[in-house]
Design goal:
Length: 153
Amino acid sequence: MQREGNLPQLFAEIIRKSCERRNVPLSPSTQAYLVSLLGKYTNIDSLLAEFEQEEPLTFKIHRASSSPEELKNIGEHCLFFVGFFYGFVRKKGEAHVGYYCDIGSTAYTRYSTFRLQKNMGEDWLSFKEIARRFPDVGRVIGDTHLEGLTEEQ
């Protein structure tokens, strides 16, 4: 596969292979969402903004109950950190990993419920799927950590 200039295709391939290897079947729409999420964090400004958060996630999720997009952002933050930066999160203790998984899963559950109640399309199923399988999906995200950049096809 040609890798130059086609990062979404590379992410899609790695996610598909990770799902197969880890026996984590995810719907095509969920896999497409994960590719989009990874693409969001290739922008260094987006990534740095996540590191600069000073407010605890428990406060943010409580406040976000009236802001669906903020719920989605919290879920994405947690998924990316527990997946891509697992080693960093784990250094603070296994409870910290559980904290990110619990907060992220809750955020995605609330966001999917909002989208379902407002009849905003079928993508609520992807968010519900992520919420239900949050630790597994985090491991799939974690597999993108430089794997595709060093693995020979």
